[in-house]
Design brief:
alpha+beta, Jelly Rolls, 5-stranded antiparallel β-sheet, 6 helices, 13 strands, oxidoreductase activity, metal-binding, DIOX_N, IPNS-like_FE2OG_OXY, iron
Length: 278
């Protein structure tokens, strides 16, 4: 990721990125702004999303409480093969995290699928009300994600988002020095349907607007990273991905007899596994 193409997100005026008002009655304008943002920077702000300020503050408070626990307590909840639980600070990105997914009981047939299963929760004696706060936030952020359909209910179909891979990830970035080659998160792009990100007031997130620097195969996902500025940083990321068996194919509005699909159809889980194994 070239520094010349990097644009700070947290420290720039809101006008720099498009602002999507989910309560607006002007749907045409909202769709136009969203499309422009996705084609330009890949990032945009969302307001009037239905998540109360009190809930947001509570989740950040609970996140700080968890990451402030002794490492021995956090390691009791080490992330498992279902991507649930704690990820410690190790070589690489200078951050620790905590994964929470859709709650699926062990005896549920869906628990046999990757990324599906029961969550890990800290003991009520250690962190009272922590689980309740996270479950509520996970629910409302999923509702927000489903509310961002470009056309009414096109993506809100059982075969697409009936049983999505939805993951909430709490993130804590330690104090680090990017001039020594250390980053909170190195340059990367996300995969899936959409990522919703709530941040604290500490700047550090950068996006790379020059998408032509590395032409994608068929998906558009903006390179971004987290740099340090001498302060701890906290963020909450919500990743929404389609069903495991969701068919990924060219949209009807993007093809014709004269302009047929350029790539073969695939399934969501196949693309995810290829990306994770890369």
């Amino acid at each position: 990721m070239d520094d010349a193409n990097a644009v700070d997100v947290a420290g720039v005026p809101a006008s720099t990125l498009n602002l999507i008002d989910l309560s607006s009655s002007d749907i045409r304008r909202s769709v136009s702004l969203l499309k422009q943002a996705c084609l330009d920077s890949g990032f945009f702000y969302v307001i009037n999303h239905g998540v109360s300020q009190d809930l947001m503050e509570e989740v950040f408070v609970q996140s700080r409480r968890f990451f402030g626990l002794p490492l021995s307590e956090k390691m009791k909840l080490l992330r498992n093969e279902k991507h649930r639980g704690y990820t410690p600070l190790i070589n690489g990105d200078y951050k620790e995290g905590y994964y929470i997914g859709v709650e699926v009981p062990e005896d549920d047939p869906r628990a046999q699928k990757p990324h599906f299963g029961p969550n890990f929760w800290p003991s009520e004696d250690i962190l009272p009300r922590w689980r309740q706060a996270m479950e509520k936030f996970h629910l409302v952020t999923r509702i927000i994600a489903l509310a961002l359909d470009l056309e009414a209910d096109f993506f809100d179909k059982p075969e697409i988002l009936g049983e999505p891979i939805a993951t909430l990830r709490l993130l804590h970035y330690e104090v680090f020095d990017p001039f020594k080659g250390i980053y909170g998160a190195g340059a990367h792009s996300d995969f899936g349907f959409i990522t919703l990100l709530a941040t604290d007031d500490v700047p550090g997130l950068q996006i790379c607007k020059n998408k032509n620097a590395k032409p994608p195969t068929w998906e558009y996902s903006t390179l971004h990273r987290v740099i340090g500025n001498g302060q701890e940083q906290y963020s909450i990321a919500f990743f929404l991905e389609p069903n495991h068996d969701c068919l990924i194919e060219c949209l009807p509005t993007c093809m014709s007899e004269e302009n047929p699909p350029k790539l073969d159809d695939t399934h969501a889980d196949l693309n995810v596994y290829r990306r994770e194994g890369a």
